[in-house]
Design goal:
Elements: H1 2-24, E1 40-46, E2 55-60, E3 67-73, H2 89-92, E4 100-104, H3 116-130, H4 132-135, E5 137-147, H5 149-159, E6 182-186, H6 195-202, H7 216-221, H8 229-235, E7 248-253, H9 261-275, E8 280-285, H10 293-296, H11 298-312
Parallel strand pairs: 3-4, 3-5, 5-6, 6-7, 7-8
Antiparallel strand pairs: 1-2, 2-4
Helix pairs in contact: 3-5
Length: 314
């Protein structure tokens, strides 16, 4: 009995470590960015009015515009993270390249379950278009970029742009489109029900367990994953892929012990089949986990912006 209790305690410890890691690993990859030197910025603007979380920050480059827009969506296991934490640092590189950056907060799972998070992201896209003239945005050139949970939401915005049931127009600017023109998905989870099996196949050390009631994914949908396959399907970006979806850049680490890389492989494969291989780029980094140095090297940031330039500046 004592050995059994020890095993249970050890298992619960691993689960909690995994949850904490998934909330903080990417956010701590780089320090909180110093935004003091950014001359043109507007902070904590409400893009909707039913939650304190529904706020965004606007950063503009020098010049007259109109500027293509990077919508920065933070990760944090759908239960943490912030629009001004270290995850914003790569996106702010866009200011040097003539991009406006709009970084958003959204309702987290302790406040509201899915699809509230996607409702909020789409409301932010509509806000960008509705306020394009005031902030010198190019409303026809918007890219969604996020990591981890933010990667999932970025991918969902990309594939579900015209899905009415995944949009709450009462949040504001109902006449505007919530479609985006490009997606950068950094290691976002896709099919939640396959994650444990895929992590086992990967043979990564200390894999996070997802098919339990208190996993980040179960908390996001409000039910244990195994008990709600239809809800799991509704959160999967693959569910909504159509030929008119925007181009995707997907990057993932092969030793990610929190989110299996196979999910990104499957998403890229299904996108390629439906929207065309020329519009999908998948890169897997050998020695990187959930985040890691390969994502934020100058070489990779250059690669990300080369992708964005191709679709947002031509």
């Amino acid at each position: 009995m004592k050995n059994f209790q020890c095993k249970i305690h050890f298992l619960l410890s691993l689960i909690m470590l995994g949850i904490l890691a998934s909330t903080s690993a990417f956010a701590q990859e780089s320090r909180k960015p110093n935004i003091d030197q950014i001359k043109q910025k507007w902070l904590d603007i409400a893009y909707a009015a039913i939650s304190k979380a529904q706020k965004l920050d606007v950063y503009l480059p020098e010049g007259d515009g109109p500027f293509p827009v990077i919508l920065s969506i933070h990760g944090g296991a759908f239960k943490g993270g912030d629009k001004r934490d270290g995850q914003l640092t790569p996106m702010l590189e866009g200011l040097k390249r003539g991009y406006a950056v709009v970084s958003i907060n959204y309702r987290l799972s302790p406040e509201a379950i899915f699809p509230a998070q996607l409702y909020d992201v789409k409301a932010a896209v509509r806000w960008i278009r509705a306020n394009a003239k005031q902030y010198k945005f190019n409303q026809d050139k918007i890219a969604a970029w996020g990591g981890s949970a933010g990667g999932t939401l970025a991918a969902l915005v990309g594939t579900s742009g015209n899905v009415k049931e995944l949009e709450d127009l009462t949040l504001g600017n109902p006449s505007q489109s919530s479609c985006v023109q490009a997606v950068v998905d950094w290691f976002g989870p896709t099919d939640f029900l396959k994650m444990d099996e895929q992590l086992k196949e990967s043979k990564v050390k200390n894999p996070q367990i997802h098919s339990v009631p208190d996993s980040p994914e179960s908390e996001l949908i409000g039910k244990n994953l195994a008990d709600a396959p239809e809800l799991v399907k509704a959160v999967n970006p693959e569910t909504y892929i159509t030929p008119d979806d925007p181009p995707f850049l997907i990057q993932h680490g092969l030793i990610d012990h929190l989110v299996p890389y196979q999910g990104s492989v499957n998403l890229a494969s299904k996108l390629s089949t439906i929207i065309g291989k020329q519009k999908v780029t998948l890169e897997l980094f050998e020695n990187n986990g959930h985040g890691g140095p390969a994502f934020t090297t100058a070489q990779n940031i250059y690669k990300v912006f080369a992708f964005l330039d191709q679709y947002l500046k031509h």
